[in-house]
Design brief:
Length: 161
């Protein structure tokens, strides 16, 4: 069983001005597929706060995956990719490329995504868009590869088929 955390990055949601729609939707979708959600939290669009949350969630043994939602676009406050890159040991560009390719089939705005995916210790961190629809579509585009990715990140020595 995979264990995941969800971090919603939103100034407005962190201040209680707007309810978080993406985090709970991702939680429900992942749980329906057998993923155990170990934590869900909301942070403002601040590099230090996002980075601290990613470090804390990744550095504990029970988290295989951390999904962020929000802050991946080109607006001045969109800093989730910077926070993610700052804490990752290695990037996994194919995940972000696959998400953008899938999104581009639905909207020309997909080219504006700066989402990244990377590894910190034994945890895979994936940036998803902030919109509920976009977050779910991006997750669906890569979900089938995640169990294998986590196994390899955590040292599975078996050959890839």
């Amino acid at each position: 069983m995979l264990h995941a955390a969800i971090v919603t990055v939103s100034d407005r949601s962190s201040q209680g001005v707007r309810p978080d729609a993406s985090g709970p939707l991702l939680q429900e979708w992942l749980q329906a597929r057998g993923v155990n959600i170990v934590e869900i939290l909301i942070t403002p669009d601040e590099v230090d706060e996002i980075s601290q949350a990613l470090i804390r969630l990744s550095d504990r043994d029970q988290t295989d995956l951390v999904f962020t939602t929000g802050g991946t676009g080109v607006a001045p406050r969109d800093v989730t990719p910077e926070a993610t890159v700052a804490v990752c040991d290695r990037l996994v560009p194919g995940i972000a490329e696959a998400m953008r390719a899938a999104s581009l089939e639905k909207t020309p705005h997909a080219v504006l995504s700066r989402a990244v995916a990377g590894i910190r210790s034994r945890t895979l961190i994936i940036n998803l868009p902030g919109s509920p629809k976009g977050a779910l579509e991006n997750l669906e585009a890569v979900f089938n590869a995640l169990e294998h990715a986590v196994a390899k990140i955590q040292g599975d020595p078996s050959d890839c088929a």
